[in-house]
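Example 3.
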Amino acid sequence: MRISNRKLDHLLITTYYDVNHSVTTLLEEVLPVPRAAPEASLDEVDPSITLFGKRIAAPVIVSGMTGGHHIALEINRAIAEVVEELGLGMGVGSQRAAVKDPSLIDTYRVVRRVAPNALIIGNIGAAQLAKMSIDDVEKLVSMIEADALAVHLNVPQELFQPEGDRDFRGVIKAIEKIVEKLSVPVIVKETGHSIDPVTVSKLVSIGVEYIDVSGAGGTSWVRVEELRARNAGEASLAREASVYRNWGLPTAVAIVAARWAAPTACILAGGGVWNGLDALRALMLGADAVTVALPVLRAYADNGVDGVMAFLSRYVSELRKGMLMVGARTLRDLYATDYAL
Amino acid sequence: MRISNRKLDHLLITTYYDVNHSVTTLLEEVLPVPRAAPEASLDEVDPSITLFGKRIAAPVIVSGMTGGHHIALEINRAIAEVVEELGLGMGVGSQRAAVKDPSLIDTYRVVRRVAPNALIIGNIGAAQLAKMSIDDVEKLVSMIEADALAVHLNVPQELFQPEGDRDFRGVIKAIEKIVEKLSVPVIVKETGHSIDPVTVSKLVSIGVEYIDVSGAGGTSWVRVEELRARNAGEASLAREASVYRNWGLPTAVAIVAARWAAPTACILAGGGVWNGLDALRALMLGADAVTVALPVLRAYADNGVDGVMAFLSRYVSELRKGMLMVGARTLRDLYATDYAL
Amino acid sequence: MRISNRKLDHLLITTYYDVNHSVTTLLEEVLPVPRAAPEASLDEVDPSITLFGKRIAAPVIVSGMTGGHHIALEINRAIAEVVEELGLGMGVGSQRAAVKDPSLIDTYRVVRRVAPNALIIGNIGAAQLAKMSIDDVEKLVSMIEADALAVHLNVPQELFQPEGDRDFRGVIKAIEKIVEKLSVPVIVKETGHSIDPVTVSKLVSIGVEYIDVSGAGGTSWVRVEELRARNAGEASLAREASVYRNWGLPTAVAIVAARWAAPTACILAGGGVWNGLDALRALMLGADAVTVALPVLRAYADNGVDGVMAFLSRYVSELRKGMLMVGARTLRDLYATDYAL
Amino acid sequence: MRISNRKLDHLLITTYYDVNHSVTTLLEEVLPVPRAAPEASLDEVDPSITLFGKRIAAPVIVSGMTGGHHIALEINRAIAEVVEELGLGMGVGSQRAAVKDPSLIDTYRVVRRVAPNALIIGNIGAAQLAKMSIDDVEKLVSMIEADALAVHLNVPQELFQPEGDRDFRGVIKAIEKIVEKLSVPVIVKETGHSIDPVTVSKLVSIGVEYIDVSGAGGTSWVRVEELRARNAGEASLAREASVYRNWGLPTAVAIVAARWAAPTACILAGGGVWNGLDALRALMLGADAVTVALPVLRAYADNGVDGVMAFLSRYVSELRKGMLMVGARTLRDLYATDYAL
Ligand SMILES: Cc1cc2nc3c(=O)[nH]c(=O)nc-3n(C[C@H](O)[C@H](O)[C@H](O)COP(=O)(O)O)c2cc1C
Ligand SMILES: Cc1cc2nc3c(=O)[nH]c(=O)nc-3n(C[C@H](O)[C@H](O)[C@H](O)COP(=O)(O)O)c2cc1C
Ligand SMILES: Cc1cc2nc3c(=O)[nH]c(=O)nc-3n(C[C@H](O)[C@H](O)[C@H](O)COP(=O)(O)O)c2cc1C
Ligand SMILES: Cc1cc2nc3c(=O)[nH]c(=O)nc-3n(C[C@H](O)[C@H](O)[C@H](O)COP(=O)(O)O)c2cc1C
């Protein structure tokens, strides 16, 4: 199967099927303690933050999702337009396809063209990284003038893909090399089955400063592969995958564990952080910023660039109102705010 | 939109739609320990209490709900009749409308006319207060010969009202001024999204002695605004509001937290305290009296003044029977009674 | 309303309607730790116990339910036959009716006639007791040659009966007098809304040695009165009752609390102890014997004396098998057995 | 009823009816902490273990289920073929039938004929054992050239079988004798109602080194007997059984308790360990290997030998992938891995 076909499969399945974990992020267990008289104005609430040397209007980044297909180009363009306008950040999907087939480069490059000022993040799988030279990796960065490169770990997904990787050796070494040599910062992220605290420690020890925990409770890639295997008539692999649908630490647990393991790292919280109230909770638990994937894709499917704009501006508005309601004018205030469990 | 129209909207929506929080007050977690042989007679059980210098037959106050509309006049008259007869207390809804349009004054004044002896409480929003002189505020009091004035905080509601306030600065200062100067005591209340313990402390430090915590678990004003936004075609605001429907500390938590933050203040417990058993639990947790809103409105919608009479006398009867069943002849006894969680 | 009519109402409502508490006894939270190799034979398992000077084959007593009506006579006869044959114990319902109308005496006396050897327990309400001389009470005992007299507390039920008592003073004193003077032991029991540990202590201090805690989770008499009030068109009283349906400590809690308050008293556990496994759990929690009411009545309604026989022999068989499966040959063994919560 | 008929009943009922406990194993409460970057290859993951002197490819043993009937012969043959090919282990069902009727020996012997190298385990009830000489027992072993003999305890099942044993004395002594004298190791197992920690201690003290806890959460033999009793018109026994359907410690609890009671024994974990993820959890809790019964039978019913092959290879694959995802290359690694509760 060609990568771009698999990518199309993924877009269709995630858009139209129930691909969630059937457990929650546990973020709903976090009860923010309100401030009934916040002595502030909504105007004053400023959730902006500097990440990778860029100031963004809110700590909200659209996770890397796509590229490598003409449909991907449209999706990436739409997200980029909105992100540029709202002053947020976004990632592209794995750039592996473009490495193999340069004709696909435009499906990624569109992002920077449309969003010259926004925070843009490149993307490559950890397994691919191990096979690439530092120059090859720099090409991914320059392809989209990326502000940072996200390296994704996705062992669970690979294991339930018929054509997936089965050998995950050398990943840490490859990340270490990149962190040391690359011209931009490196983020290590999962894709919905969480990065655990032991791995967080190890990553910190090799110099990684940015980690997206991407925990359980949102999109489950094992579930996506279950559906794909079922469609392909691979009943046994589908059943294996169904057993592991909910693999990983729930996002709320993953945030707390990562913060505990890496008190000074920059923790991004993804995986089911799907509205501004959940973002508020993730930030209160210690995340520096949140990442969100699937709902953005669905907003696009629903109503194109307007759908994405509606979703992301509502998301930021929800976050700002939540901040006001707990009496936080800035993220720094927010980190100091009480919650109950 | 004119205030009185919004008021009518609110009456209709709260009467006919499901406007509850979809979480509970947590009062149901309080297990009163019975006294199987109470050595008392129901006659002897006396839940009367002195509030704002008036003796009321039971610590039950109908929360401020309405005014400013000819329908409001009928509702207020009905509640006032019952409250006068049963010897209870009641509040009127926000008197802001009457400030703007004196022709509406009668829709409030009816209360004192019908209930010359009952405990009557005025009402104004904290945001309005900041814009009023002390003389203006005294006019609200004299309009209904109020025994006390309730100042309501309702940040969450305002934030999800298209026309709502967005600036909440100066509220504390305005309350401080009023507390110092007004001829009657001031109650600070929320409208169903709770007053938190930090705000309770702050209020106490500026001289507030009466606080109605109005926690989550009963009427959710964010939910009401969600429904109103949806009707008005404001889909995005409606969705934002839906995310925050359950905002606030559940009433049981809010009572305990307020009592802890203000050991000697008078704590009123509202928000989903909808029958005499829940009232019993709220009092056992440390509240001095309870307030109840929505079910009174619905009892009126159901059967006019008779509906209100049936509801409130049942409520008091339930409370008195509950007191007897835990062996408490008075509220003082009740505060000393055991419960399990 | 004549007593016997109310008694008939009670029989019909409890037999055909859902009259349970809608909370459980919490006995299901007790996890008996099995003994996989008990080194015993079922024959050897002997749950017999001496109560009120009589040896009974198992610590299972049918609670007092009826009398005072020709239907009651048939029910009492059936239960007595079975109890005599199985060597168990039983109570009769309140003998108040027979005090007022001696023609009804036979509906109680039938029990002793049919069960000359069984443990038989008389019954009177605590409120009635206060109005009777010691000689009158002795007549209740002699009426059925009772081995003990149960005095029932039922404040919650009375409060939601239109014609019920409202004055519960003098109850403790009346019990104290009876305990001192009566020729047989006195049991104090509730009827499904529990006896709390404070009352247990008080009862012990006035000489009571037998207490049936009759907790929440089985038959709710407040619920029965709710249904009766609803039938009688007393909508408001019915609603009050519905609020208090689940009043009381769940039976499991009531047992532990009573044992804690009265380490050496004889604790009987009733209220929803409806099969031999729940009986096992109640005994493991510290009860000396169990009492069971409603399922016996329903077994009679289902299949007369044969239904009662089937129910009670199954109940004892379940208990004996449970004892074997935790490795207990006797009740003494059982009290020393482990459980987890 | 002849044994072989009862055996057929059991096969049919367990295959086609809901015979689970209606409580869970609690294994689902174990949250394995992932390793997002395991630095290993799936090839390297080696769950092999030496049991009873034989190396098996994974710690997965098909529990003893059948024998003594011509259908049993086919089932045993199918399981044996798969087990031989995958390098796993299996038990046969109780060999009691073959003791009574030597013409049935082939229905067991087929296993060793088809699986000359696999780990094969004989089976006899503890109650039978007490009546057999050591030579008789050796015959069971030699009948199938067993690598070990499983002695099953099944008190709960027997108690709810009309024709079941009621006397369980002498069991411990009989096991002690066998452990001392038999030419192969002895496993003591339950059949789904758990072996408790006290019994584990006792077994260890008489020299037993292998214990299959077979806890609650999978097949409930009391439930099977309930269905059989109901079919046979034994309504009362069926109801007794229904009360005890969930008897026993849930498997997760039983594993932890057994490991605590016998730190150095070999603990096998059965009872509802029905996929590779639950196996992973059971091993993380301290089991040395897992046993699985009912799903293998159903896989056979579904698709004969191919069904069994599909089930067991999927099971092992799930386990190996789970090991990789927690970063364990071997079982020794796995025992040292973290989990949260
Ligand atoms: C359609 C789709 C494609 C994705 N492709 C990638 C990818 O190429 N690289 C990557 O690192 N993550 C990818 N992800 C994972 C997301 O970045 C994110 O970590 C995950 O979906 C969890 O976030 P969510 O619950 O908000 O969807 C993809 C997600 C979706 C929905
Ligand atoms: C129809 C309606 C109108 C209300 N209007 C006011 C108001 O004008 N001022 C105010 O302080 N609270 C107002 N409230 C809030 C109540 O006073 C109360 O705090 C809240 O409804 C929670 O109590 P409940 O759960 O018993 O309804 C209103 C409530 C209702 C149902
Ligand atoms: C039909 C019926 C009549 C009863 N009448 C009496 C009574 O006269 N006196 C009494 O002490 N308890 C009476 N009870 C209460 C029972 O003795 C028992 O305490 C209560 O029903 C809880 O037990 P259960 O859950 O097993 O039904 C009656 C119960 C029933 C079902
Ligand atoms: C059809 C069937 C027959 C069984 N027969 C036996 C048996 O003869 N001897 C035995 O020790 N266990 C027997 N068992 C019990 C299993 O070995 C096992 O302990 C129990 O089923 C729990 O495992 P499970 O939940 O994976 O089914 C049998 C189980 C099944 C389903």
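The two ends of chain B are 46 Å apart (CA to CA). The first strand of chain B starts at residue 31 and ends at 32.
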